[in-house]
Amino acid sequence: MLNPEIQGKRYPRTRPYIIGLEKLREFSGATFGNTSDGFVVPPTFPIAIQEHSLSLVIADPEAGLDFSRVVHGEQRFIYERQLVPGDELTSELEVASVKSLGGNHMVTFNTEIFDKQDKLVCTAISTLVVRGEDA
Amino acid sequence: MPEFSSLEVGQVVAEREFPITRDSLVRYAGASGDFNPIHYRDDIAKQVGLPGVLAHGMLTMGLSIQPVISWLSGSGEIVDYSVRFTKPVVVPASGEALVSVVATVAALNEENSKARIDLTTTFEGNTVLGKAQAWVQF
After folding, report:
1. Domain housing B130
2. CA B128, B27, B16, B82 torsion-angle sign
3. Tell me, what CATH number does B66's domain have?
4. What total of structural domains would you count in chain B?
5. Domain encompassing residue A121
6. pTM for this predicted structure
């Protein structure tokens, strides 16, 4: 069961993730985008980096987040600059809010993604709906 | 190439249809690292009470912006992109789920040359994304 006490909790910075050109091309193709030279970095690619931070929450016994009960509610990406191949990125997740709604919980995570110079590149905001035990 | 000065609120700037198959889901799982089995196994989808194997919400979000990227052809950058996942896209074991996207100019910020493009993403007559909005910096 999701622990509402984790609201405000910050998880440690993740290990560096180096963006590979071919990974971006693969992701672009998988989202029906262009894969020829000069293709645009897919705007939803930071989900792959957010994933590293989210796995810390899933592994945290205090959080009690049962991923098999999770439905993705909302997602947002706010960019300070565009990602480029070769970027070395780390991320840091904060539990922005935990709300109860009927038997369900809604939890919002803000994941800040930084480059090697420690400058904010993108903020990924994810709201998950955690279905209640008997829902 | 579109220019900011030529945009008008209400203008449809891009439309595209996407045939989503099980192959698409496997491919997206590999590219994104999201290997939740509800996106490729019928038995597990059933077990957790879903109507069938579902497309990853993030796949729907990811493809919905593609018509905008094609339309821009490098003349602007997406600086903010958000959606709500309101309805699932059920993908059959064989055949395809056809998802349509229409992109419309919803707001113009003259001061800093930003345009808000709203996306209407539909599957079987229902919109599957709510408040799907992308801000483009020209």
Report:
1. 7-21+55-137
2. positive
3. 3.10.129.10
4. 1
5. 4-130
6. 0.96
In angstroms, rounded to a whole number, what is the distance separating the alpha carbons of residues B130 and B118? Answer: 10
Tens of pLDDT, residue by residue over B43-74, are 999 998 899 999 999 999 999 999 999 999 99
This complex has an ipTM of 0.96
pLDDT in tens, A81-90: 999 999 999 9
CB-CB neighbors (< 8 A) of A77 in chain B: 80-82
Instruction: Give A-chain residues touching B30 at CB under 8 angstroms.
Output: 26, 30
Given CA atoms B25, B43, A47, A132 in this order, what sign does their dihedral have?
positive
Q: Which chain B residues touch A34 with a CB distance below 8 Å?
A: 69-70
**At a CB cut-off of 8 Å and minimum separation 6, what does A79 contact?**
A43, A121, A122, B77, B78, B79, B80
Residues across chain A: 135
| Number of neighbours of residue A19 by Cβ within 10 angstroms | 19
Decide if A32 and B28 are in contact by the 8 Å CB cutoff: no
Query: Does A109 fall in a domain?
Result: yes
- Token readout for B106 is 């919803």
> Residue B71 domain-assigned?
yes
- Count structural domains, chain A: 1
